[in-house]
Amino acid sequence: MRLTYRYRARVLQPVSVASKTLADYTHICGRDLIDEIRELAEPLKGSRVVHVSATAFGGGVSEILYTLVPLMRDVGLECEWQVIYGREEFFNATKLMHNALQGAPQDLDGDQWETWRRYNEMNARELSSGWDVCLVHDPQPAGLYRLVPGKARGWVWRCHIDLSTPNPDTIAQLMPYIEDYPQSLFHMQEYVPPGMSGHVNVVPPAIDPLTPKNMALSPEDAAYVCGQFGIDVDRPLMCQVSRFDPWKDPLGVIDAYRIVKEQVPTVQLALVGSMASDDPEGWDFFNATIAHADGDPDIHILNNFNNVGSIEVNAFQSHSDVVIQKSTREGFGLTVTEAIWKARPFIGGDVGGIPLQVEDGVTGFLVSSSEQCAARTLEVLADPALGKALGRRGKEHVRAHFLTPRYLRDYLRIFTELRES
After folding, report:
1. Are 289 and 257 in contact (CB under 8 A)?
2. pLDDT-based confidence at 279, cuts 50/70/90?
């Protein structure tokens, strides 16, 4: 059934963002990078840029845009962020698409593909015209360029997921909508599907070191916040911060914790995540995680509906003795970047974008099983000096490669190419 007009006024809603100033990052990133950004931005001043995404909260894309959009404004771009409209049927289809593009065996059926196309057609009609650059994030609105190419002078598709081993039927259906984007961005070369005809850029994402989630917290403040959620701050703490999603493997983290607990009975585990509006199966897996914990009082499973916000996530990461991201698939893993930025010892899955951030044994540990995760955790808990060294080296690696000003610079280079083409 076709959507009726009464829904159309709600699509492509603008997202309000706070003001940010690039100069505030100079002491963290260095003056050379800030000066380079200003120089790149000068000929682009006044350019009209719109970011189009599926949701304004939950997940790494929205967190990136809450910083990137105001910084683009600060350097002189007329930048907006707009969110497409979708009902439950659309987000059910796109979540299935997301999983299939990361290798899950189930493709969308004919009705689900028709739902995706129908919502893309509707959102394409509602996208306003006259943009110098339209930046489309991820598969949910990926059809916009093919449907309304004349509404922007330059188009960019930003893929935030791992396309290294996609379901072949799913990627075959999506390719006609993404292959001709003039510019595309992927986290890693391995994620670029064969057949992309435009200019492909390999650009990892980044975190904002000045947000409440990433700013420096004193050990006392971090411990106080964790204590409010029932954590015994005098006992060791393992922690994973991520969506409740099968690819993030919280069940495997619980298994690793149980192995560790056999040797360190005082250890605790915190699984902390946010529930996003475009992730309808998230609650099912959240409940499955609770069931797997089986009532263990030392396993704390928390989300944004438990008043866990940015400061709380910061506190859990900053206070933890070991921070984990035991993903089995991972586009990049901004929670990895965030954890390492806190200078905490990190253990992550040896998949996707995590090895970009972690040199095994130098800035953290890479693992491929719950048993390996447990073994590395026990190693860190037994040797605090090792944990401090890993954390210190990891933080400097993030400073050099994965902070937002570098990400802004890379986008400005791409906008310059579009302007000159």
Report:
1. no
2. low
Torsion sign over Cα 375, 381, 384, 389: positive
Closest CA to 209 of 376, 77, 401: 401
Bridge-partner residues for 145, per DSSP? none
Q: Which of 347, 334, 338 is nearest to 390 (CA)?
A: 347
* Strand partners of residue 238: 269, 322
Which residues are CB-neighbours of 347 under 8 A, at least 6 positions away? 322, 323, 324, 325, 326, 364, 365, 366, 367, 373, 376, 377, 380
Rounded Cα distance between 318 and 238, Å, is: 11
- pLDDT of 237 > 70? The answer is yes
d(CA 338, CA 326): 15
Tokens 């992730």: give the residue. Answer: 279
Query: What is the pTM assigned to this prediction?
Result: 0.87
What is the rounded radius of gyration, in angstroms, for the C-alpha atoms of the chain? Answer: 21
Q: How many CB atoms lie within 10 A of CB 111?
A: 10
Say how far apart CA 380 and CA 376 lie, in whole Å: 6
From the centroid of its chain, how far is CA 369? 23
Contact 421, 390 (CB under 8 A): no
